[in-house]
Write a structure and sequence with these properties.
The chain has 169 residues and is α+β, with helices and mostly antiparallel strands. It has one domain (10-131). The protein is 26% helix and 18% strand. It has helices at residues 10-14, 17-29, 66-69, 93-96, 115-132; strands spanning 36-39, 44-47, 53-56, 61-64, 133-137, 144-145, 152-153, 159-163. The chain has a two-stranded antiparallel ribbon with strand order 1-4. Strands 2-3 form a two-stranded antiparallel ribbon. Strands 5-8 form a two-stranded antiparallel ribbon. Strand 6 (144-145) and strand 7 (152-153) form a beta hairpin. Helix 2 crosses helix 5. The model has no long low-confidence stretch (mean pLDDT 90). GO terms for molecular function: heme binding; iron ion binding; monooxygenase activity; oxidoreductase activity, acting on paired donors, with incorporation or reduction of molecular oxygen. InterPro entries: CYP450_sterol_14alpha_dmase, Cyt_P450, Cyt_P450_CS, Cyt_P450_E_grp-IV, Cyt_P450_sf.
Length: 169
């Protein structure tokens, strides 16, 4: 922030590549939706990596789980580890394996139109929190509650915070 003073705008948030990768990795490990559903508009065939074929008839519902797909070991190195640099230029694990390897916001023609705004909003909130506060998780890391359409956590999450002393230049 020293480069920009106290000003935070769209352009500055767009430059926050490390924070963007951190948020993307958190959403890879903890996507907000359990399942994505689509209706097939035509007959098509799917071939697995193992060569098994599945015919999908027109009108059938096709489902995928971001929570499962975002942890496939043939797509992500150490898929259960938090590693934001997996999305860094030159590594780009989500792109190397092919289209739709990262589906926290869906994909294809029906991907979430709000994805860019979601990243902008999340980065605005976290850039403020990280700059102004020291944060510490004091409760155990929360368990995931899979019982709702939008995934949440079970119980309470307790975070201790302390305001940072910021110098004004």
């Amino acid at each position: 922030m020293q480069k920009h003073g106290n000003k935070v705008d769209h352009d500055i948030l767009s430059e926050m590549d490390v924070l963007h990768r951190c948020v993307k990795e958190a959403l890879r490990l903890h996507p907000p939706l359990i399942m994505l559903l689509r209706s097939s508009h035509s007959d098509f065939c799917v071939t697995t990596r193992e060569g098994k074929e599945y015919d999908i008839p027109k009108g059938h519902i096709v489902a995928t789980s971001p929570a499962f797909a975002n942890r496939l070991p043939h797509v992500y190195t150490n898929p259960d580890s938090y590693d934001p640099d997996r999305f860094a230029p030159g590594r780009d694990e989500d792109k190397v394996a092919g289209a739709f390897s990262y589906i926290s916001f869906g994909g294809g023609r029906h991907g979430c139109l709000g994805e860019p705004f979601a990243y902008l909003q999340i980065k605005a909130v976290w850039s403020h929190l990280l700059r102004n506060f020291e944060l510490e998780l004091v409760s155990p890391f929360p368990e995931i509650d899979w019982n709702a359409m939008v995934v949440g956590v079970k119980g309470k999450v307790m975070v201790q915070y302390k305001r940072r002393n910021l110098s004004v230049n």
